[in-house]
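User: Could you go from structure to sequence for me? I need the amino acid at each position, not a summary. Structure tokens:
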């Protein structure tokens, strides 16, 4: 990436770092995990990510999987921004003050609400840091396939880097099945890594897949209420992104 920059990687779930494993090896970022990855399974994946990050020579940040998805959802649905603001400030306080900063976050993909929250948090952190320090353009890493954005960096993995990435994926047992599905959908996942830039139109209607799934689960009696972008997410993040 950018020479002499301190790299910050903000991810919704442990395991997303596998998508850009070689970038991790090359840039050794400080990695922040918003959730523990337990989802509906109630089993944390944080220690798998901690081991992987250590092997890459990267660093675990001050926000590292202490909160579950369910707790995040409850906070967002209640309209409370305490957790959001605390998370943002903790990341900012943890960043070095005398280095240019490169921030990368999960891409805005509409697939999972915490993926989108990671992007918004990355955007807010980027805006606040660049008020006081040098911050290179905010970039994103797609945790899923077919995510829209302009490719800003493409890394072609050589044989050795590809082998290390495959080994890392195979060692990350909770995601073995998910990795297999991603590879079926994206055969180049082990050969190329990309960072993209994305923009967001606050005036346009945003209809994420995660919201449709939530509404269906309410209809099926699985959920009692549904997280929505317009009612829950937008009011929390919009006021904190003051450069758009």
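Assistant: Here is the amino acid at each position, in order:
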């Amino acid at each position: 990436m950018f020479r002499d920059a301190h790299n910050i990687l903000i991810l919704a779930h442990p395991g997303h770092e596998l998508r850009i494993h070689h970038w991790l090896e090359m840039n050794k970022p400080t990695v922040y995990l918003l959730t523990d990855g337990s989802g509906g399974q109630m089993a944390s994946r944080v220690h798998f990510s901690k081991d992987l990050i250590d092997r890459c020579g990267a660093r675990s940040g001050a926000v590292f999987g202490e909160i579950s998805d369910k707790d995040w959802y409850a906070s967002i649905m209640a309209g409370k921004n305490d957790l959001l603001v605390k998370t943002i400030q903790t990341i900012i306080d943890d960043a070095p003050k005398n280095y240019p900063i490169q921030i990368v976050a999960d891409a805005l993909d509409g697939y999972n609400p915490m993926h989108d929250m990671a992007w918004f948090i990355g955007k807010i952190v980027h805006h606040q840091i660049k008020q006081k320090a040098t911050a290179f353009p905010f970039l994103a890493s797609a945790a899923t396939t077919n995510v829209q954005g302009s490719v800003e960096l493409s890394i072609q993995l050589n044989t050795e880097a590809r082998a290390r990435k495959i080994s890392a994926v195979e060692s990350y047992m909770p995601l073995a099945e998910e990795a297999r599905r991603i590879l079926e959908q994206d055969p180049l996942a082990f050969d190329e890594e990309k960072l993209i830039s994305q923009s967001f139109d606050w005036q346009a209607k945003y209809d994420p897949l995660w919201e449709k799934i939530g509404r269906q689960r309410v209809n099926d009696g699985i959920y009692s209420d549904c997280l929505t972008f317009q009612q829950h997410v937008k009011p929390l993040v919009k006021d904190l992104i003051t450069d758009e």
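One structural detail worth keeping in mind: The chain has nine helices and seven strands.
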